[in-house]
Amino acid sequence: MLRLISFIFVCALFNCGFSKEESCSRFEFLERLLEKMAKMELNFDQLQKNVNTAQNAMDTALKSAETKLETLEIKSEAFAEGLAAQIEKLDEQVTANFTCALTKKLSEMGILSTPTACPDGWIPFQNSCYLFGDDDVMFNDAQKFCQTFDANLVNIESPKENSFLRSQLKKRKAPRHWIGMTDMEREGEWKHYPSHSDVTFFDWGKHQPNNGRVSNCGAFWESFQYLWVDEPCTNKFKPLCEKKSDPGVSIQ
Predict the structure, then answer these.
(1) Where among 67, 89, 109 does a domain terminate?
(2) Helix 20-108 to helix 2-15 angle, to the nearest 10 degrees?
(3) How does pLDDT run across 97-140, given as a tens digit for each residue?
(4) Please, which residues have CB within 8 angstroms of residue 215's CB and are 6 or more apart in sequence?
(5) Can you give the CATH number for the domain in which 200 is found?
(6) Is the distance from CB of 156 to CB of 204 less than 8 angstroms?
(7) What total of structural domains would you count in the chain?
(8) Would 46 be classed as within a structural domain?
(9) Is the pTM of this model over 0.90?
């Protein structure tokens, strides 16, 4: 605006040295020039508004795309978790059906004798029997409970055994059960209990183990989808006992 006023002022001074006719002609020229400049300024303002509008539209579209991408990622994670659960369930069913069919067929062929036997109330799996206790007791008392049956707290040594136990706990809707493992001797070095052999397979829940020296005993926990947690050994959970099955299966 300042440049425009200066321009008009200079033009006015310039007109002072001309005749009346020449001044009018030049004044009309300046009027048209100012009109064009005013229109150009309006066009520029409109162009700037259009640019701002387009920029806002792009920002809105970008935010919408980011939101949709986040939603898609959440759905993808949920789908992956659901698919993994279905695969795990299918694997358990296939394993159980195959084992049952194979045992039946071998028995019919006379290759297998009487199936592996477990005491009443105990659940067989592979070469072990498992007992799911009903009373909540401290870790050491849970071990004593198992010893009354010539058994110990469960020592989990493979993914298949762990998967079997998790499925059993889910069926029972059992909230918490002790696992025979501790890091009492040295923090972070988990040992089977009571054998004190190294634990080589783990299935910790999210952010577990997390309680350091306060928690030295392992357990299944429903809130963690029956993954493992570390807990104070003085907490009271149900025992989960394991003993070797009677030698009822023999290969001739």
Answers:
(1) 67
(2) 160
(3) 777 777 666 655 545 544 557 999 999 998 999 999 999 999 99
(4) 209, 230, 231, 232, 233
(5) 3.10.100.10
(6) no
(7) 2
(8) yes
(9) no
